[in-house]
Amino acid sequence: MRDRTDDDDVEGNLPKRQIALPLRNHRADTVPMSQNTQLFHDAQFASDYIDHPPRFMPGYREMHRLAAVLISERAPANAGVLVLGAGGGLEMKALAEARPEWTFDGVDPAAPMLAVASKTLGPLIARARLHEGYIDDAPAGPFDAATALLTLHFLPPDERRRTAAEVRRRLAPGAPFVVAHMSFPQRDTAQRAMWLSRYADYAVDSGISREDAERMRNTVNSDVPFLTPDEDMAILAEAGFSDVTEFYSAFTFRGWVGYA
């Protein structure tokens, strides 16, 4: 990715590459998203959120390690990485700790989630810039890699395709795009229900109360526009990514890597 100048940084005493929040005042309905994403704009929910992903997503931390390996295959040692859905900061922290020379631009529409990300990163924030908004608010790049972890499943298919295409437009030729989110077979309502039951059961096995797990199951079932793995892979291909390959599969979650 290109070297940044001092003009790219906000004036003041912030560490280099950190951007003060909020950058912009976005309407929540700027981009079509599932209804339950409004929770991410609640400060208390945002504060509690970072405890949830490892309890609902099997192999959550290992998936971050896999992402680092996949990016390292193609990206330079000092890679600039675009992180879509950066709120909470968990993946940026994992990647920053794994690869000390990487820098990050993280984008998220929820200011409370970005505030949590800044806190999660701690001193690592010196290697990151946080942008409040959607993919259209991300820098033009070109980036050496991009990630969208637990993000694209909130978008309906057309917006998911458009967003993926905008990510590709910001990547250097051949740069990897690592994606992971809820995606599972849905031949009929019975098969869909089976997979969502496994989603809830895993959460209970991870220490979530049955009541909370069932509430989350019902919420995602009604509000999240899940696609099948084949449909998700097709969207990445239609957005212009080549050699799209599944690298991660755990109950209701899948992960892919494709190349700009």
From TrEMBL:
Gene3D superfamilies: Vaccinia Virus protein VP39. The keyword Repeat does not apply. Keywords: Methyltransferase, Transferase. SUPFAM superfamilies: S-adenosyl-L-methionine-dependent methyltransferases. InterPro entries: Methyltransf_25, SAM-dependent_MTases_sf. The keyword Transferase applies. It holds the Pfam family Methyltransf_25. This is SAM-dependent methyltransferase. One of its GO terms (molecular function) is methyltransferase activity. Residues 81-174 form the Methyltransferase domain. One of its GO terms (biological process) is methylation.
